[in-house]
Amino acid sequence: MVSLQQQVLRTDASGMPLEWIDYQQAVRLYHGEQVAYTCGTPLYRVRGGINSRTGRQSVVDVNSIIATHGTNRSIHKDYVPPLNNATLFRRDAHVCLYCGNAFPASDLSRDHVTPLSQRGKDTWTNAVTACKRCNNHKAGRTPEQAGMQLLAIPFRPTHAEYIYLKGRRVLADQMEFLQAHFPRSSPLRERLRRS
Fold it and tell me: Exposed end of the chain (fewer CB within 10 Å): N or C?
C-alpha cells in the first residue's frame, strides 16, 4: 500500500478522466455505491466500523482509478481548461521557453508571447513559462521585438492532458490510462515519451 497522500483518478462510466480525488472522497463514492468499476492497482485498504449484528468490520479496497456511474457530457472537444501558473509550468516542464533552462517554480513566471499591453490575451496559446530574468528582459515586447527566440509553440491542453498536469505523483497505471486519452499529435505525449 502507498501513502495516504496518493491521489485516485476518477473517471466517468465511459472512462473519461474527470478529476483527482483523495482516499476519503474515494471511500465515500464506494460507500454510496457510485463506483461503476475500477482499474489500476489497489492503493488502499480502509477499515471501518464493526457491524453490531454480524460482528464484521467493513473494509473498502480503493484502486488507483475508479469509474463512477454516469457520463460527463460537459467535456467536449472545445473544452478550455482554466489557466494557472502551476499547470502552465508543468506543461512546459518547468523550463523557460526563452533560455531553455529548468527552474523551480519560485523562479518562474507566466509570460504572454504577445503582451497584454499589445492586446495579447491571457490564454494557453499565448502564455509560456519564462524565468524571471528572461521575462524582465522581454518586458512588454513580443519575442521578435526583444530579439528573443521562443523555443516551443504554446498549446492548449485537452481535458485529459489538463488532468495529468494537475496530478501529483502520477502512478504508472494512471499515466498509461491518461495518455490513452491524449491526442496522437499531443506535444505533451511526445515530451513524456522522451523522458
Answer: C
